[in-house]
Amino acid sequence: MTELRFADAEAPARVVQVVAADALESWLSGQSDGVRAWVAGAGFKAGIGDLLLVPGDAGVAFALAGFGSAKTRARGRFGLAKALGALPAGNWRLAGNLSQAERDEAALGWLLSTYRFDRYRKASSAEGALLALPEGCDEARLLAMVEGEFLTRDLVNTPSSDLGPAELEAAFLALAERFGAATQVIRGDDLLAQNFPMVHAVGRASPRAPRIMSLRWGDSGPSLTLVGKGVCFDTGGLDIKPSAGMLLMKKDMGGAATVMGLAQMIMSLNLPIRLRVIVPAVENAVSGNAMRPRDILNSRKGLTVEVNNTDAEGRLILGDALAWAAEENPEVLISMATLTGSARVAVGPDLAPYYTDDAVMAGALEQAAGPAFDPVWRLPFWEPYEPMIEPGIADLDNAPSGSFAGSITAALFLRRFADHPRYMHFDIYAHQPNDAPGRPKGGVGQGARALLGALPAMLGLE
């Protein structure tokens, strides 16, 4: 885990002067001839994320960080993180005309940019820059959010050779132990004995036994249950993916990783709720006992499902998990999954699309997403598409024919098992395709910080 800390507020620190592009000329008018000449000679225009080190008698006197224009700031998150990440070692503090939201974004973006996944290569021993906590920022909340995000990133980035169902279980149990949570794990053929037939059907072809895991924390307050898809690798099963389609399939447990990261945030901040986390963990493999196209599966809820594509397995394991969660009727039920390519076609990799029928929950999430710098986008549970998931020979079809509305039909499928008025489903990507400020290429959490901010309103804690 990347060490997270701010510079000691009492320690000497050099200044990072944040200057917007339209304020640069005004700021320069109050500086010495030498500073003006240095800035002009460097061609510094205060574009978003630009950094210029300004020399003094004893080395670097201070740094200039470009804040761009309102238009360029609106085109991306964590623009200052690019500049802050390029600072030389030492203690630094922000200065400039920043709102509280902008200070929060700078602090969060800087912390997120410090992430390194160094499990398979030696980490740099060079000391990095340390930023003093900007005025008004909530250090405990920032650290909780970033530590939860880093847990998610570490899990998603770990290849399936080192993160199968057993290893995901070990990480799940370690998280529970850290916060004193109670756990339950059901594995292998015990899944059939305890009525999780779809989890078993998806995972039985792998020598790495399928399982379902539950964590419980908190003994008072409203109840929240999080369910995350834990497909540790997805070959597609007998409807096997092409090789290019498997390259990112180590991330197919991104829903599980994200709910675990969110759970860590909740428990770290000691929110006054009763939390339950459920993760079905499988590997969708190919062997003689793999589920076949047109098999009909029973489910925990009693609904039958025709398997029209073995590569639509995530909704199967989530179906049993959501049915189990709904039996306790939590006040809010949320699922997260790397479920469909259709969601990526619809909104791309940067937005987390979600579904809910509850206007209060949707409003709370939308209101919280901006301050959390965690964008989300609502898609509809479009009921006229319900017949698309009804094959006739069974109650449900796991993969309707045709290429239309794939994310919506998957969400409608899951809603049949959740059967809960305050249900929310996220169809996330959990991967950053290119380096971006605060988000290096690789695994990434989506929706967790927005949910953390929305939970008080969703659960009536305000």
UniProtKB/TrEMBL annotation:
Entry's Gene Ontology molecular function annotations: manganese ion binding; metalloaminopeptidase activity
CDD domains: Peptidase_M17
Keyword field: Aminopeptidase, Hydrolase, Manganese, Protease
GO cellular component entries: cytoplasm
Pfam families: Peptidase_M17 (PF00883), Peptidase_M17_N_1 (PF21337)
SUPFAM superfamilies: Zn-dependent exopeptidases
Residues annotated as domain Cytosol aminopeptidase: 309-316
Keyword Cytoplasm: no
One example of a Gene Ontology biological process annotation: proteolysis
Assigned protein family: Belongs to the peptidase M17 family.
Protein name per its UniProtKB record: Leucyl aminopeptidase
Species of the source: Neogemmobacter tilapiae
Lineage: Bacteria, Pseudomonadati, Pseudomonadota, Alphaproteobacteria, Rhodobacterales
